Amino acid sequence: MAAANVEIRSPGEAVARISYLSSDVIVSVQSAQSIESEFSSHLRRYAGRKDRGLVASSESGVPEIETVRENSDPLLSVFAPIRSGKLVSVTTSSSILVLSVPHLYRLANLPVVIHVSLQPSQYPDFSSITSIRNSGFTFLQSETLQEAQDIALTAHALAIKSGKGVIHFFNAGSSARDSDLPSEDESVVKDLLNLDAVRSFQNIKIGSTDIYADNGRIATITEVHSAENGISTSMEKAEVSSISEGPINSEAPSKASSAGSSKSDRESSVDDKDSISSATTVEQTTTRPVTSDDIYNFVSTIWNQLKHRVGREYTPFQYFGPANAEDALFIFGSDVGAFKEAIGSAKSGDVYAKAGVITARLYRPWLASKLTATIPKSIKRLAVLEQIRRKTTKWGPLLLDLLTTLKSGPGGGVETIVGHQLGYIAPDAIQQALRGVFQNLKSERPIQNLEVGNSEGPSESGETELSQPKVESAYMKILDQIFGQRLYLANAIGSRDAGVSASIASNPEFGFGSLVARKGHRQRFLSEVQASTSSRSLGNDAKAALSKWAASAGDDKKLNEVTDELIALLEADQSTKSKDLLANKGLFRTESPWLVGSDAWAYDLGNSGVHHVIASGENVNVLIIDSTPYSEGAAADAARRKKDIGLYAMNYGNAYVASVAVYSSYTQVLQAMIEADQFDGPSVVVAYLPYFKENDSPLTVLQETKKAVDLGYWPLYRWNPRNDARGEENFALDSERIKKELKDFLARDNHLTQLMKRNPEFSSNLAQDYGSEVRALQKRKAKNAYAQLLEGLFGAPLTILFASDNGNAESLAKRLGNRGKARGLKTLVMAMEDYPLEDLPSEDNIVFLSSTAGQGEFPQNGRAFWGAIKDNTELDLATVNFSVFALGDSHYWPRKEDRHYYNKPGKDLDRVLANLGGKRLADIGLGDDQDPDGYQTGYQNWEPAIWQSLGVDKVEGLPDEPPPITNEDIKLASNFLRGTIEEGLLDPTTAAISAPDQQLTKFHGTYMQDDRDLRDERKAAGLEPAYSFMIRCRLPGGVSTPKQWIQMDDVSNNFGNETMKLTTRQTFQFHGVVKTKLKAAMRGINQALMTTIAACGDVNRNVMCSSLPTASAYHRDVYRCSAKISDHLLPSTTAYHEIWLKDENDKKTQVAGDAVQDYEPLYGPTYLPRKFKITIAVPPHNDTDVYAHDIGLISIKGKDGRLVGFNLLAGGGMGVTHNNKKTYPRTGSMLGYVSKEEVHIACEKVMLVQRDHGDRKNRKHARLKYTMDDMGVDVFRSKVEDLWGQQFEKPKPFKFQSNIDTFGWQKDENGLNHFTFFIENGRIEDTADFPMKTGLREIAKVHRGEFRLTGNQHLIISNVDDADLSKIKEMMSKYKLGNYQFSGLRLSSSACVAFPTCGLAMAESERYLPELISKLEGVIEENGMRQDSIVMRMTGCPNGCARPWLAEVAFVGKAYGAYNMYLGGGYHGQRLNKLYRNSIKEHEILDIMKPLLKRYSQERTEGEHFGDFCIRIGMIKETTEGKTFHDDVAEEESDEE
Ligand code: SF4
Fold first, then answer.
1. CB of 1378 closer than 6 A to ligand 1?
2. With b meaning 16 or more CB within 10 Å and e meaning fewer, what string describes 512-522?
3. Is the pLDDT of residue 371 over 60?
4. Which residues are annotated as catalytic?
5. Residue 1085 contacts residue 1092 (beta carbons within 8 Å)
6. In ligand 1, which atom is closest to the CA atom of 1405?
7. Neighbours of 988 (CB within 10 A)
8. What mean pLDDT is predicted for residues 101-107?
C-alpha cells in the first residue's frame, strides 16, 4: 500500500484500509452505484493507485473491488470468489443484513469478513445485529475510531484462524469526535493475519459452485493427538469440511463432522501449541466443529499479539469504572463513550456517580463465563440499555442474554437487572437520561422496558433511503400510461406495501401475499356492493348505478365503462353508505395487479417468490426489470450468472411470458403489457433497462439495449401458452436473434421450425445463435485461406496492413497490394484488426498504412492491434522487415502543444516495431493533407522506396492500372438507375446491397446504412454490420393530410424502427428498415400517394416552402408553386416503379403518374453532377433557410395580398470537407425576379446550366456553388437567360426577420387555427414520459385539416376549425403535446441525425444536442435570457444537413465527442458563421459558452442578436461570402500570437 502511517479520519476509512490489506476481493455494497458508501471512496482510491494488498494473491497484488447495489442480493457475490480460494470481505451498511439471512447461514462457515456500518448513523438500530445473532457468525463490535481499526484487523485475523465468518459492526456516529489516528503499521497487520495460513487457504478450492444446493459446510478443527508416554498433546487445524446436512450454527454443533471431511493443507493458526516429535509418537487425528471456546482462544491469541505489538488491550467484555461499583450499565447501543464521560465526570451527589459501564466487544459467541469474570463482584444492580428500534419480542435480546447468564449461572452478586429501551439522546441530555435510568434502577420497583431518550431518533435521519433508480421508472410510467387508475402495484418502492420497510427492497413473496389479500378484499367488496343496492340510505340514482355496476360484474370491459358514472353519482350522493363505498374507490375497477421486481429475483428462482407466483396459477402480473448492462452480462462470472426467468416461466407452461426492452421497441412493450393484463393466469414480463450507474444518460441505456437485443443476449419475444388452442402460435419473436438457451427450448417443442418457416428471412440469424461465432477463429481462417491462395505465387511475400476510417489508407493499401502483385510479390492486404498478432514474427516483409483519428489515435480498425502491440515485450521481430506510411493533417491541431498528434499513430507504430527488433524496409512516410497533392505528395516518395528495398523497382511492362470507377460511371451503366438493385434485394445471404447499387438507390430515396452503435460488437462477434435502410419521402412544401400521417406512422411501425424523423427538408424520413422490408415500406409510402423518388441522389430533391401558419391563402399559392416545381423537375425513369411497386403478381400498385419509356429529357443518362436543392421562403420568415440552397426563391406578394412571383437566388450550399479549404459553404447569389408563372422554367434552366457546367470529375467540387464561383455570377446568369430566352427582372424589395418557427396557437386570416409543436430535432417517437407519436396519431384520426412539416424539423397542425378546437386541445393535453415552454435556445436549435444511422457521422448530434443545451440552460436562466432566441445548430459531420454554417453558433462533428465550433452567423440565416475553435470537447464548449452567454446578456445592445454580438465584440470576424469562410479564423489568429 502506498503511504504508510497516513492519518485515518473515519471508521469507514480505517475499515476500508484494513479490509483492502487483508482481502483478495472486497465486495463494496452501495445503496446506488452513484452514491458512495463510507468505505467505497477509500477503496476506489487505493485501487485507483494500484496499491498492493498484503494477502491478495493476484499477480499484481492488487485486490479486486466489486461494487454491488444494496438491492441486488449483495452477499451472493461472496460465494464464487471465496470458493475459489480467495479471501473475501464485504463493506456494507446494516440495511442488507436481514434480507441476507439465507446467505448468512451459508457463509457462516467460510472465512468471510463483513464490516457493517450501523444505520442511520446518528441513531442506529441495533436490531439489525440482534436479528441475525444466531446465524453462526462471530460478531465483534467497535466503538471508537481506534477500535474500528483494531477490531477490523481482529476480524480478519479471526476469520483466517477460525475458518468462520466474522461480522464486525460499528456505529460511525459514535466516533465522530475522535481525533485522527495514524494508520496501523503494515507489519502489525501482517503479523496478525498470519500469511502462511492465508496462503494455505488460498491454495484450496472449496468445491461446489452451486450455491443453492445445501452444502452443509462447517468450519472444523482437526486435532492431532499424540500419545507419548501416556501424555496426550494435540495440534489443531481449523478446516473446512462437509457434512450431509446444514445449516449449522457453530454454537450448537449437532452433527458429526468426520464423514466426507476434506483435509486441508491450511495450517493451524493456533501455533503456540506444543509441537510433536515425529520419531517417537503415535498420532491420532479427530475432527470437530469450531466451538465457542475455540473462538475465544483464537481471539485471545490475536488480542495478545495486538497488545504485544501496540499496547492496546481488548477482552470479550469490557468494564469501565471503579472496581467496587454497585451499579452498572450494560450498553448495547451507540455512543457508549458519552455515557462513560458523563459518569466519569459525575458529582458525588449524582445518582449515577461511581457506576460502571460494560460493553461487549465479542458479542457472539456469547461467552457467559467471560462476562461473569468481567463484572466486579460488587455490582448489585445492572441497567441494560438496548438500542433496538424494531422490537419483535417484549424483552430485549440482550436483557435475555444477561438474565440467563447472571441469574442462572455462577454469576456473582447481581441482584437486579432492569432492561431499558435506549432512544436517541442528544449530547446535552445525557446526564438527564442517566438520572432517569439510575433512579429507575434503584427504585423499589424498577420499571422494565423503560424508554430512555427519543425513540423516533433525531429529526434529520442520515439514512439513505433505497430509491428506485431514475432510469427504471420508464416501465412504471408505461404501466401507468396503459392502465391508469386500474393499475394496482403491489410493491412499488416507497409504498405501504413495499415489503419490510421503505428502505429495504421488496421481495416477491410479500408482494404476492399482498395481491392475494387484495383479491380477497375485492371479493368482499363485491358482496358489500351487492348488499348496498338495496340500502335505504342511498339515493335512487346511486342505487340504480350500483345495480348496473353489480350486474356488469364478470364483464371487465363493461364494468370499467360504468364505473366513472357510478363514482360520480356516489360522490354526489353524500350519504354515509356512499362514503363507505368510496373509501375503497379503487376496487370498483377491475384492477390490473402488478408485482414489480428486479433481476435480483433471478438468482434463486426455485426458492424465490417468482416461483410461487407462477405455481399459484393466480391472475397476477409480474414485471421484472433487468438492469445488467450487456457488456457486463455477457462477461459475467458463470457462478453468478442469473437464471433466465423468462425461460423458467415458459418451461412451467401455464404463464404468459414476454421479454421486452423499452429502448428497443416501445410498441412491443405496450403490446406485451396489454397481453399480460388480458391473460387470465400468471404473467411474467421480463424487461430490460441496462445501466452502469443510475445517472447514466439515456444514450448509454439505448446503446447497451441495442447491443443486447441485436446480438441475441436479450431477445424480444412473447409467449402465450393458450394460443395453440386458438390455432395461433404460442411463440412470437419480435427481434431477430436469439440466444442458445431459448433456441433449445423452442427446438424442443418444434416452435423453432415453425418460426423459421414463418419468417424465412430470420432463418440464418436463428441458426447462428448468439455466442456460437468466434472472431479469432474467423481471423485465422481468413488468413490461412488467403495464404493458400498465394502458395502458387513466386516472389517475396509482402503483407500490407491498414487502419483506416475515411477509406484513404484502405484504398492506398489495396492499390499497393495490386501493384506489388504486378511486380511478382505475394501480397496480402488486411485491416490491422483482422491480423493475428502472433504471426508477426514470422513475416518477412510487412508494411503498415494508418490514418490518424481523434486526438492522434488509431482509427477504429487499428485500435485492437495497437492495444496488443504497444506494450508488448515478447515479440521478437529480428527477422522482420517493415515500413510505415502515416496519413494525417499537420494543420489539424492549431495549438502548438497539440501538434505532436500529427501522424502520431504511424510514428508510434514505427517506433514500437523498431524497438521490437524490426528492420526498416524504408523510413516512415508521412502523408500530409496540407501538401500540394495532399497525402499523395509524401506517398509518391515512400512507395518507390519500398519497391527498391524489395528489389522490384525496375520491373518492366507493368500493366496500366484501371481508372477508379466513379459515380458518373455507375450512373451511366445503370440503365436509368436500375443497376442490380432488384437482384441485390433478393440476395438472402447478406442484409446489404452492392456498392454501386448503394449509389443508385439514393435516387430512389433510400440509403443503406449500418447501425454505428453496434459496429464494434458485431465485428467482435464475427457478424456483418447491422445493415438497414433509411427512406426519405418526397413531400413538396412539407404538407401532409392526416390520413397520410397515419399511413406514415404505420410505415414506421411496421417496417422501420418505430420512429419518424421530420427532416430539415420538410419531409418524413424512416430509419432502420431492413432489406427484406424495404420493398413493402416503399409500397406503403406510395399507397399513401407519396413517393420517394428523387428524395436523394444527383437530382432535384424535395422542394421546400415556408409553412406560414398565419396566412393560409398565401401559403396555398406558394405551396402550389413548390409542388409545380417539384413535379416539373421529377426524373422520368420507370426503374422506380419497376423495382419497388410491383405487387406479388408482378402488377404495379397504384401510384401517382407512370412513365412509358425511359428517357430523361431534363437529366439525361448521367443526371446531375451532384444533388440539387430548391426552397421557397416567404418574408419575413426565412424558416427554410433560403440562402442555403442551390436555388432559393423569395416570394413576393402582390397588392392583392396574393403571390406574384419570386426573387431567385442561386448557388447556396452547405457541404464542406474538414481541412479542405477548397470546400466551403456559400449563401445564394441574387439572379433577379421571375413571375410565378415562369418560376418552374427559370428553375429548370438554372439546373440545366449546372447539369452542363458542373464539375463531374470531383464530387467535392461539383455543387452549383462552385460552378457559380468558378464562372462568376454574371456569366452564370447570362447562361441561364440564354437557355431560357428571357431575362430576370430586377429583384423586388423584401425583408427577413428570423429563420425560426413561431410555436403555439396562431389564427390565420380565415379564422382557422394552427398550432406549431416543438418536436425536438424532428424525432417523432414514444417514450415512457412522453407518448408523442401515439398522441399525434390519435389527433390525426380526428383532425380535418392538414399537417405541415417545417424546415426547422417541427410540426404544425393546420386549419383547425374553431368547432374542433377544444377536442384537439383536450387531446394535446392528454398526450402532453402542447408544451413549448422551453428556453429560447432550445426552441431555436436543430440537429441532424448523425449516430447511430448516418454512415458519415463523426460525432453525435441529434442524441447529444439536447443534453448540451440542458447544460447551458442554467447560465441562460441565471442571466435572464430564457426567452431569448439564439440559433444553435449541430451536425455530426461537415456535410451540414442541419445547415450549421448559417447558425449564430454551431457545432460540427470532428471526431467522437469533439466538435468544431463556429460563431457569428446571421440571426435570420443571411450570413455564414466562421470557425472559432477546432476539435473541442464538451468541457471546452461549456468553458467558452457559459461566460460568453453571460457577457452577451450584459453587454448586448438593444435588439442585438448573438451572432452580431460575437462579431461586434471581436470574438469572430464576419464572413462576407463563402469564399472568405476560411479566412481570419479565430484559432489561427490566436495561434500566431
Ligand atoms: S450532417 Fe453529416 S452526420 Fe449529420 S446527417 Fe448529415 S451526413 Fe449525417
1. no
2. bebbbebeeeb
3. yes
4. 1032, 1101, 1171, 1173, 1392, 1398, 1437, 1441
5. yes
6. 4
7. 11
8. 82
> What are the grid coordinates assigned to 197, written together?
495460513
Cα distance between residue 788 and residue 794, in whole Å: 13
Asked if residue 864 has pLDDT above 80, the reply is yes
CA of 1050 to the centre of ligand 1 (A): 26
pLDDT one-digit tens code per residue, 488-505: 887 655 444 433 333 334
Q: Lowest-pLDDT range, 111-115, 704-708, 993-997?
A: 704-708
CA of 1143 from ligand 1 middle (Å) equals: 34
Cα–ligand 1 centroid distance for 1438 (angstroms): 7
Query: Is residue 1436 within 6 Å of ligand 1 at its C-beta?
Result: yes
Residue type, 192: L
- Average per-residue pLDDT in the chain? 84
Q: What are phi and psi of 332, to 5 degrees?
A: -125, 80
Residue 1434 CA to residue 1453 CA, distance in Å, equals: 8
Average pLDDT over residues 1398-1405: 89
> At a CB cut-off of 8 Å and minimum separation 6, what does 1514 contact?
none
Give me ligand 1 centre to Cα 436, in Å: 77
DSSP states of 79-137: HHHHHTT--EEEEEEGGGTGGGHHHHHHHTTS--EEEEE-SSTTS--THHHHTTTTSS-
Ligand 1: which atom is nearest the Cα of residue 1395?
3
Is there an atom of ligand 1 within 6 Å of 1100 CB?
Answer: no
- Cα gap 452→385, rounded to integer Å: 8
Question: Which atom of ligand 1 sits closest to the CA of residue 1394?
Answer: 3
* Residue 1437 alpha carbon, nearest atom of ligand 1: 2
Residues facing residue 87 across a β-bridge = none
Instruction: Name the grid cell of 1337.
Output: 396519431
Cis preceding-peptide flag for 1180 (omega within 30 of 0)? yes
Q: Which of 805, 1096, 1223, 1398 should be mutated for ligand 1, with most atoms under 8 A from CB? A: 1398
Helix locations, 346-402, DSSP H:
368-374, 397-402
CA 664–ligand 1 middle distance (angstroms)? 23
Q: What is the pLDDT of residue 210?
A: 40
Beta strands in 1403-1470 (DSSP E): 1432-1435, 1449-1455, 1458-1463
Instruction: Determine the distance separating the centroid of ligand 1 and the alpha carbon of 1391, expressed in angstroms.
Output: 9
Which range is least confidently modeled, 688-697, 1287-1296, 1491-1500? 688-697
CA-nearest residue for atom 6, ligand 1, is: 1441
Expressed in angstroms and rounded, the spacing between residue 1351 Cα and the centre of ligand 1 is 16
> Is the CB of 97 inside a 6 Å radius of any atom of ligand 1?
no
- Closest residue to atom 2 of ligand 1, CA basis: 1437
Percent of the chain with pLDDT over 70: 85
pTM of the full predicted structure? 0.67
Q: Is the CB of 1321 under 6 A from ligand 1?
A: no
Query: Which residue do the cell numbers 496500366 mark?
Result: 960
More confident residue, 1119 or 591: 1119
β-partners of residue 319 are 358
Lowest mean pLDDT among 18-22, 709-713, 875-879: 709-713
- Whether 1169 lines ligand 1, by a CB cut-off of 6 Å, is no
Cis peptide bond upstream of 1396, omega within 30: yes
Region of poorest pLDDT, from 41-55, 618-632, 1167-1181, 1484-1498: 618-632
Residue type present at position 404? T
pLDDT of residue 775: 46
* Percent of the chain surpassing pLDDT 90: 49
Axis crossing angle, helix 740-748 with helix 645-652, rounded to the nearest 10: 10
* Residue spans of beta strands (DSSP E) within 777-859: 797-803, 826-831, 845-851
Of the pLDDT bands very low, low, confident and very high (cuts 50, 70, 90), residue 1535 is very low
What would the pLDDT profile of 411-451 be if each residue is shown by its tens digit?
557 888 999 999 988 888 899 899 999 999 999 888 888 88
